[in-house]
Amino acid sequence: MRSSSSSTHKGLFIAGIAALTIALPARPADAFCGFYVGGAGADMFADATQVVMMRQGTTTVLTMQNRYDGPLSSFAMIVPIPEVLQKEQVKTLEPEIFKKVDTLTSPRLVEYWEQDPCRPPIEDDARNFAPSAPGSTQNSGGGVTVEAKFAVGEYEIVVLSTNESTALENWLKANNYAIPAGASSYLAPYVQGGSYFFAAKVDVKKVKFVDGRAVLSPLRFHYDSKDFKLPVRLGMINSQGKQDLIVYLLGENQRYELQNYPNITIPTNIEVANEVRDDFGAFYRKLFAETVRQNPKAAVTEYSWASSSCDPCPGPVRLTASDVATLGADVIEQQSGTQPGSSWRNWVITRIHMRYSKDEVGEDLVFRKAPPIVGGREIKVNGKLEKGSSPSQSNNFQARYIIRHRWTGTIGCFTPQYGTWGGDPKNAGSGPSVSSALSPNSTGASVGNDPAAGPALENLVREEVTELKIKPLLSSGGCSIGGNDALIIPTLALVVGLVVFGSVRRRRRQRR
User: Which of 3, 32, 384, 403 would you call most buried, defined as having the most Cβ atoms within 10 angstroms of its Cβ?
Assistant: First the structure.
């Protein structure tokens, strides 16, 4: 959906960091200035930028997914970096790796059926809980220097340095980077901070096309820096509305959070209406929109779990040793002198989601180490399903939402035990149903990406979302994880029948 003003030149916010694109028509105010950017999650949050960052010591490996609509001759990307990169520090990846990471960490919808309350008790098999790993050159005039120049995959890359933002803007324009007017004011903080600038163009002859659409490879590069941060201010150069950023952070036995912005976890383990299955994405967009409305500028953690594990798993998407190496462990292990693949099970992947406007971004994102948390599992605490996030020895937190089917069959015992959940009793041997984590990425025909459209959250939840003070308009029958009011009638009928039977027997004895 593009504006009719095709002559407007717009910038690009690629992969959550400073990136510029040229000669693209404008999109609506809530878009990324001309096209979609992101991986598999971009359908749920249509303009979401996605970045994977791996950190060990002072080494950062950063991977950007470049999903691009527009003339390839106009594509360009500019990223502030702390050091001069050489060719061996930059590589392209296959796009599938982003889809896998997104699928693994996406919110999930699960479905459970209450088991026969009169069946013999079974030993707790710790279902729905899989613990994570134990705690785990040349000058080019105007004061700009070309520090390095090379090609990687379909990208032509230069690394620039300068001590003057105006000179950098002039150099970019002189070399056919048709950047927006006034770019120097956005470049200035990075120039003053001593950053170098990683600039990439596309060699059209090397681009792959799928169904007539260009598919650009994700770009991965690594560098050494005492600060673990993501520069986002330059990416707001042409922002006219809200932008979504999803950052996947990989640390060895380590979760991360923001140091300079508020941190919260998404409300999780919420029972939802059966109709949520029709468009899980619409429900989750509403929940996220309300979460950030009540917590402006917050960094929302949606997932933190060992990358080699998941429960429930949205398909066979655990990251393998090869996947972890692809995302940067090969660099980490080479620099530390450890055996390749020896640490792959120890990496924790944390998904942080932010939504902000130009006026709300005052600083680049700075990350810090954070203690482990749990939440979003089918685990009872004091007889009730755990809610929110809690401190733990290992990371097992996920955004999980539940459809529950309560027992409606006959009650054939005196002391029914409610609250045991599993697969559909009509399908013997089946386990609990897990909707794929891709399901939130379906925008739906009617709701699309507008969180205000469709039913309100109060109509979609079946229990209170305490963090947001949202109460359901239609409850699940007043039953908790340990009970079921829907079964009061058949149970009372059984009790009344026994009482009546007993009184009849007493009368018969008295007559005798």
Answer: 32
Q: Identify the CA nearest to 217 among candidates 38, 75, 66, 12.
A: 66
Tell which wins on pLDDT, 177 or 2: 177
- 369's tokens: 């180490």
Question: Cα–Cα distances in Å, from 213 out to 134, 205, 216?
Answer: 44, 14, 10
Closest C-alpha to 53, from 246, 287, 213, 193: 246
64 close to 17: Cβ distance less than 8 angstroms: yes
Which percentage of the chain shows pLDDT scores above 90? 39
Spatial separation of the C-alpha atoms in residues 92 and 103, rounded to whole Å: 21
Which of these, 302, 292, 279, 284, lies nearest to 451 by C-alpha position? 284
CA distance 22 to 330: 34
Rounded to the nearest 5°, which phi and psi values hold at 118? -105, 5
pLDDT at 320: 92
pLDDT in tens, 162-220: 998 888 888 888 887 757 777 788 888 899 889 999 988 888 889 888 887 888 899 99
| Alpha-carbon distances, residue 119 vs 112, 175, 225, 412, 413 (angstroms) | 17, 75, 59, 9, 9
- The count of C-alpha atoms lying within 13 angstroms of the C-alpha of 45, restricted to the half-sphere facing its C-beta, is 24
CA angle (131, 368, 396) in 5-degree steps: 15
Contact between 392 and 372 (Cβ < 8 Å):
yes
Residue reference for tokens 């998404």: 266
Query: Which helix H or strand E contains 350, and what residues bound it?
Result: strand 347-356
**Amino acid identity, residue 104?**
L
Please answer whether residues 287 and 400 qualify as being in contact, where contact means their C-beta atoms are separated by less than 8 angstroms.
Answer: no
Pairing of strands 59-64, 49-56: antiparallel
**Contacts of residue 350, Cβ cutoff 8 Å, sequence gap at least 6:** 248, 249, 250, 251, 255, 256, 257, 301, 303, 304, 395
Partners of 374 in the beta sheet?
390, 396
Task: Region of 128 please: left (phi>0), alpha (psi -120 to 50) or beta.
Answer: left
Each residue's pLDDT tens digit, 392-432: 999 999 999 999 999 988 898 888 988 888 877 777 655 66
